[in-house]
Amino acid sequence: MCYEMAGSIVRRMTTAPPPSRSATAPTTQATPTTPTIPAPSATMAAHPGRPALDWRIRFGVLSLIWGFSFLLIKVGTEGYAPFQVTLGRLVFGTAVIAAVLAVKRERLPRGTRTWLHLTVAAFLLNALPFSLFAYAELSIPSTLAGICNATSPLWGMALSLVALSEDRPTRRRVAGLGIGFFGVLTVLGAWQGFSGLDLGGTAMALLASLSYPIGWIYVRRTLAGSGHSNLSLSGAQLLVATAELALVTPLFTSLPTHFPVVPLLAIVALGALGTGVAFLLQYALVAEVGPTTAQMVTYFIPVIATAAGVAVLGESLSWSTPVGAVIVLAGAALTQSRPRAARTTTTATTSATARPPRQS
């Protein structure tokens, strides 16, 4: 989700002009989420070091963090307004990245134009989707929000065919797009006329997942080649997103008169882990095993989000939800597939111009 800062982004958006020179996500996106993953810097790839934990363990931890992000949002909104949940998430996520920047002695980017582009990126990749997911979960289960987040690669593929001239449609990718959206209709129970479904909350969750690829297309067009490190841009982007929410939140909410502990702890975990730590894990994974393997985390997020929602929050689950989710993930996988020759070229390009990822 990166959501924070990912979610989850389309591979072609992360391997052709170096994403590391763009801003983060989901992550803290990823998200939640999201969700959607830029490649590591050449320096990092050349000197990966020796991580204390095997990459598979860190991959699992990242999947759990982003998968549980939707549950944390739901718990947070039980005690605080959606904008307050998002603001808290951004504050604690920014604090983690700021601490790492201080330790590494990296500076924030300079230049008015760069900061203006980061302002738009922060809105599309952080402030908007995080807020939409928080508002959506006032009326829809966290399980549905997690599955909606998995549609980001589908939206990304559809948009990139229009916005990115180097992306050419293939029968396989178009088929994946169709299959994915059929999966969405299955999740929503379209044959029942969407009976019992909160259309407003669902629409907000889908719009949040759409915001991620829009943001990454913008980042790719404006910040690629800026010369700044991905960590520096990520810190700046989160800082700007925090400022945006700090301005908006007082206009729509009032200061809490009491501070429920459990929702507050959920917000702290959502920001520090789901936005801050998750981005750092994603960044290191991309550097170590490459974007193709690292982006597979996208397919575990809805599974974990669904399991967490059912087991911890007691959310109901009809047969159409898991079946539709599997169809969505199958379609998303097809939209990101490439012919063998293209994969070889992409791998070579990634190795030569490697750069880092977004938060989900």
Protein model, in words:
This protein is mostly helical. It contains 15 helices and no strands. Helix 3 (55-77) packs across helix 13 (301-313). It starts with 10 loop residues before the first helix and ends in a 7-residue tail after the last helix. Mean pLDDT is 79; it is low at 2-48 and 342-359.
Note the main attributes of this structure.
mainly alpha; disordered N terminus; disordered C terminus
Give the topology, please.
Blueprint (H helix, E strand, L loop, with lengths): L10 H5 L26 H5 L8 H23 L4 H23 L7 H25 L5 H8 L2 H12 L7 H18 L10 H24 L7 H23 L8 H29 L1 H4 L6 H13 L6 H16 L4 H14 L7
Helix pairs in contact: 3-6, 3-11, 3-13, 4-5, 4-10, 4-11, 5-9, 5-10, 6-9, 6-13, 7-8, 7-9, 7-14, 8-14
Can I get a quick summary?
67% of the residues lie in helices and 0% in strands.
Give the percentage of residues in beta strands: under 5%
Largest sheet: none
Secondary structure tally, helices: 15
Q: How many strand elements?
A: 0
Shape: globular
Uncertain spans: 2-48, 342-359
Element-level helix/strand string: HHHHHHHHHHHHHHH
Q: In percent, how helical is the residue content?
A: 55-70%
| Distance N to C terminus | 3 Å
The residue-averaged pLDDT reads: 79
Structural class category: mainly alpha
Rg of Cα set: 18 Å
